[in-house]
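Need the bound structure for zinc ion, inputs here:
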Amino acid sequence: MNILAPSILSADFWNLGEAVRQVEQEKVRWLHIDVMDGMFVPSISYGMPVIAGLRKRTELFFDIHLMIERPERYIQDFADCGADLINFHIEATEQVEETIAAIRALGKKVGITIKPDTPVAAVEPYLELVDMVLVMTVEPGFGGQKLIPQCLEKVREVRAMVAAKGLSIDIEVDGGICAENVAEAVAAGANVVVAGSAVFKGDVRGNVRTLLAQMG
Ligand code: DX5
Ligand code: ZN
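Answer from helper R.:
Posting the output first, comments after.
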């Protein structure tokens, strides 16, 4: 069963709670929460207080995507404010194994993330240690960009690597996913799909239904 993880970066923040309720009503179970620090990526989004506020009101699985330098500094904080899974960029730290271990020690699931220019070989040493690999399909930093088609080739390569090792970890895609390309992303090997603007711009519930119908 493939998973849709709506990214609240594209939600209407005036009505954030209502946006979350709308995806819940369509049986969505994951929420993708993008944290940006203005250093690893140019933008600054939101952080722990917003996540903690959401955590009080929803049972959704919180898939946190850290786009921050040296994520090891903040693992405890994100665990405390309600993360279920913490993704961090391997380009953002020299302490990949230590960061994986710190997330695990707090009882949270672990995802490692790569930008479009990072080769898939970079994740190979860590595959046995993680629950998920997030393959970015746009340059991280902004919602509403167009998917870079070559990134789907990387998804195929990660899926093949994971299968060759006999592992069953999740592969997530993030960036530019829409009704027109989501089936292709799933066919390439992604089983967790992030969508921001394709969910939250316009008719949220209708958008979720359209995406789910294409995902299988
Ligand atoms: C971009 C973020 C994404 C973003 C996706 O850096 O990681 O999660 O919200 O937005 P869309 O689906 O609009 O490309
Ligand atoms: Zn993201």
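Comments: The helical segments are 16-25, 48-55, 75-80, 96-105, 150-164, 182-188, 197-200, 204-215. The longest helix spans residues 150-164.
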